[in-house]
């Protein structure tokens, strides 16, 4: 009744963009942080800088930042522009992004996708065990603000990734840790992701099912399928209609 194979007993949900409408808030916060950095670099007396200092775009977010731990996102984007930063600068960019995100969270609150809430209720009623696996270090705050904490048996977040020295997505380590906490092999767990890096992580971990959630449109669905998604939906409650 959940649109999953019968042998799946655990659901490992990414948070931002899958359960809550916070991916757009992350994207705006990253845009502000990176554009501040690029503007500052543009003022440096270094010849030959043109295209690499162009403003941060939504496509940059999807290609280099979405789904990755915060510092990995900084390094990935900066490297994509052929720029070098020291650890202090990278940390400052990440801190600026987090400050902007937390300010937006406090100002605007968090919306859980109605289709995701319906799916969580159906999953819990059907006896599916639920964990959240997110690269965000604000996972607990977002779950509480969205009223979703009651559904979650275990949480692996950005703090877990740092504390336990896990490799971030697209490596499967955080999802594998989630399955371990839930007491199942990867084959018995389904991964739910809206980021290409997360879909790649689910595929690399050989999980039993990988659900891609396309909130973007365009070529995202095809990219998710290529990255290893078993199925791609635009909202989780579409899976309920599969039955």
TrEMBL record:
Q: Which UniProt keywords apply?
A: Carbohydrate metabolism, Isomerase, Magnesium, Metal-binding, Phosphoprotein
Cofactor(s) annotated in UniProt: Mg(2+)
Which catalysed reactions does the entry list for this protein?
Answer: beta-D-glucose 1-phosphate = beta-D-glucose 6-phosphate
Q: Which GO terms describe its molecular function?
A: beta-phosphoglucomutase activity; metal ion binding
One family from Pfam that matches here is Hydrolase
Give EC number(s), comma-separated.
5.4.2.6
Instruction: Family membership, please give it.
Output: Belongs to the HAD-like hydrolase superfamily. CbbY/CbbZ/Gph/YieH family.
Specify the protein name.
Answer: Beta-phosphoglucomutase
Q: What is the lineage of its organism?
A: Bacteria, Bacillati, Actinomycetota, Actinomycetes, Mycobacteriales
């Amino acid at each position: 009744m959940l649109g999953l194979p019968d042998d799946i007993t655990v659901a490992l949900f990414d948070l931002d963009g899958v359960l809550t409408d916070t991916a757009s808030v992350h994207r705006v916060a990253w845009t502000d942080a990176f554009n501040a950095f690029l503007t500052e670099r543009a003022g440096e007396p270094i010849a030959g800088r043109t295209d690499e200092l162009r403003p941060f775009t939504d496509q940059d977010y999807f290609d280099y930042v979405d789904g990755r731990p915060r510092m990995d996102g900084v390094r990935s984007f900066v490297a994509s522009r052929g720029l070098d930063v020291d650890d202090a600068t990278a940390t400052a960019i990440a801190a600026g992004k987090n400050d902007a995100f937390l300010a937006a969270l406090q100002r605007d609150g968090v919306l859980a996708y109605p289709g995701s809430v319906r799916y969580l209720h159906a999953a819990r009623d059907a006896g599916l065990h639920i964990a959240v696996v997110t690269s965000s270090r604000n996972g607990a705050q977002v779950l509480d603000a969205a009223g979703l904490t009651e559904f979650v048996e275990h949480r692996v977040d950005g703090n877990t990734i740092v504390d336990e020295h896990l490799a971030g997505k697209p490596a499967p380590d955080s999802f594998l840790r989630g399955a371990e906490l839930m007491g199942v092999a990867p084959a018995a767990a389904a991964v739910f992701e809206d980021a290409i890096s997360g879909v790649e992580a689910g595929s690399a971990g050989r999980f039993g099912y990988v659900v891609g959630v396309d909130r973007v449109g365009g070529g995202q669905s095809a990219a998710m399928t290529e990255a290893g998604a078993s199925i791609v939906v635009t909202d989780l409650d579409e899976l309920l209609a599969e039955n």
